[in-house]
Design a protein that fits this description.
alpha/beta; Rossmann fold; 8-stranded mixed sheet; 10 helices; about 40% helix; AB_hydrolase_fold; AB_hydrolase_1; AB hydrolase-1 domain-containing protein
Length: about 270
């Protein structure tokens, strides 16, 4: 598709042939990868983009019906890959983009060489014995706060998500990114993100994947990482020392090394840093 570059504000770099596509999480944009993506330029074709409604994407392309489920975002990933001829791509997805990558791989597994899932969660709501980290009332309260006072929500949530209190500049940047997003689109995306349940999709994934579980992650706790490790076929699990939900910002060196190790060695067994 000829318009994918403008629609998703695509940025490309690198001197290699194999594509590495970096997909940002909720409320963020491609700038969040600035400390990680350059490390892959020597051997890869590095592709950054903004989901519709984020960054400098074409907000006029937003369609509430299309984006009423994560599948709409997965379709965008496939549009991007096909439009740019990104064959045999490594897809690196943070947070909700991890499940977006999973859905895209189910639709067209031949498009991807591997998936790198950073802080993934197939379901945020507790459903005993499954522990997603949140009660449904928690999520409904979060969405209500976003609707009534989006700026206040961003200010309150950024430090919780970042979980690096000794480095307040990180939380301030995350808050700034949240506030740069259209609040109506952000609220819709949050509802889709936090109310989705992709647990039943996991066992159908055929593309090899790396699960990067952060320490002290308030959004995707250890129980979620363990669930993914047990239910996602062809996966390699790694527990990072990095705390919080955004290791590509707070601990870019460790995050970069984990991805590079995986790409160099391929699928393997679970291990810790």
């Amino acid at each position: 598709m000829s318009d994918v570059r403008a629609r998703f504000n695509v940025t490309e770099s690198g001197r290699g042939r194999r594509p590495v596509v970096f997909a940002h999480g909720f409320g963020c944009d491609q700038t969040m990868w600035r400390e990680v993506a350059p490390a892959f330029e020597a051997g890869h074709r590095v592709v950054l983009f903004d989901f519709i409604g984020a960054g400098d994407s074409d907000t006029s392309a937003y369609d509430a019906e299309r984006y009423a489920s994560l599948q709409g975002y997965a379709d965008d990933v496939l549009d991007l890959c096909r439009g740019l001829d990104l064959d045999d791509a490594v897809f690196v997805g943070h947070s909700v983009s991890a499940m977006i990558g999973v859905l895209a791989s189910l639709q067209d597994p031949d498009q991807f060489r591997s998936l790198v899932l950073i802080g993934p969660s197939p379901c945020y709501i507790n459903d005993p014995p499954y522990e997603g980290g949140f009660e449904r009332a928690d999520i409904e309260g979060l969405l209500s706060m976003m609707e009534k006072n989006y700026g206040g929500w961003a200010q309150a949530m950024a430090p919780v998500i970042m979980k690096n209190p000794d480095r307040p500049a990180l939380a301030a940047e995350l808050e700034e990114r949240f506030c740069a997003t259209d609040p109506d689109i952000a609220r819709d995306f949050a509802a889709v993100t936090f109310l989705s349940d992709n647990r039943d999709d996991l066992d159908r994934v055929t593309v090899p994947s790396l699960i990067l579980q952060c320490s002290n992650d308030a959004i995707a706790p250890d129980s979620v990482g363990q669930y993914l490790r047990d239910h996602l076929p062809h996966s390699t699990f790694r527990k990072l020392r990095a705390s919080g939900h955004c290791p590509h910002l707070s601990h870019p060196e460790e995050t970069t090394a984990a991805i590079q190790d995986y790409l160099a060695t391929g699928p393997g067994t679970s291990w810790r840093a």
